[in-house]
Amino acid sequence: MKANRTRGRILVLEDNELLLETMEDFLENVGFEVNLAKDGEEALKMSYDNNYSLYLLDIKVPLVNGIEFLKELREHGDNTPAIFITSSTDKETIAKGYDAGCDEYIKKPFDLDELYMRIKAVLKRVEPEDIIKIGHAYTYNIKRKRLLKNDKEIKINLKDLQLLELLLKNRNQIVTKEMIKDKLWHDGDTANSGSLRVYINNLKKIFGKDSIENIRGLGYRFVG
To answer: Cβ contacts of residue 90 below 8 Å, gap of 6+?
Structure first.
């Protein structure tokens, strides 16, 4: 029987279809929401469109391998915990995985209960010191990229979440439009003032219209 309350969302990058389905069934049964990718390019798209609590990454996958995938995310400030799943016993490969920013690795073939224990251990390490409280009802977990109201997760798109995190880290201070541009739009992307106003309004719908001040000509300030 599947757990009623989600424990977070996991992205699994694995090109073995049978193993992918097995992991999906197991992780959903222990309470996680699971997204699946069979190649690195598909996983990158998912990572930019969604927020995850954890990445489970095979190293040897098509198009973009697991190590390059994680390097890309780390370079863009994504610190979501990551566990590599690999059949490699090559110390150099394992070292490259840690250098890319992984938190743990598990060798194939593996026991699903062992995988679950490693997942719990990694998530436990990132929880307590990375919680920001917002008023009496809301909490934001920086590492796991999750916004909760009274312990129930609020689904929020990636740009809104990135903006919220920037505002919260500079709470009661002015966040300039230049700071927002650097956070929300990667190199080569065009910053869009109209889109920014939409993101601001999306957050105001959650926290109230007075939660974010527009500092004319400068930027925005999250109040409270």
So the answer is: none
Looking at the chain, how many residues does it have? 224
Compute the distance between CA of residue 166 and CA of residue 118 in angstroms, rounded to an integer. Answer: 30
Task: Reduce the DSSP state of residue 133 to 3 states and report it.
Answer: strand
Pairwise CA distance, residues 200 & 151, whole Å? 23
CA dihedral 182, 141, 221, 181 (to 10 degrees): 10
CA distance 111 to 109: 7
Look at residue 216 and give its three-state secondary structure: coil
Average pLDDT by consecutive 10-residue portion of the chain (224 residues)?
58 89 89 88 86 86 87 83 83 80 85 88 70 83 80 85 90 88 73 85 91 90 84
SS (H, E, C) 17-62: HHHHHHHHHHHHHCCCEEEEECCHHHHHHHHHHCCCCEEEEECCCC
Is residue 10 a contact partner of residue 118, using CB atoms and an 8 Å limit? no
Report d(CA 214, CA 222) in Å as an integer: 9
- Tokens standing for 92? 């150099």
Yes or no: say if 139 and 132 are a contact pair by the CB < 8 Å rule: yes
Residue written as tokens 């190199």?
A: 187
CA angle 217, 189, 56 (to 5 degrees): 115
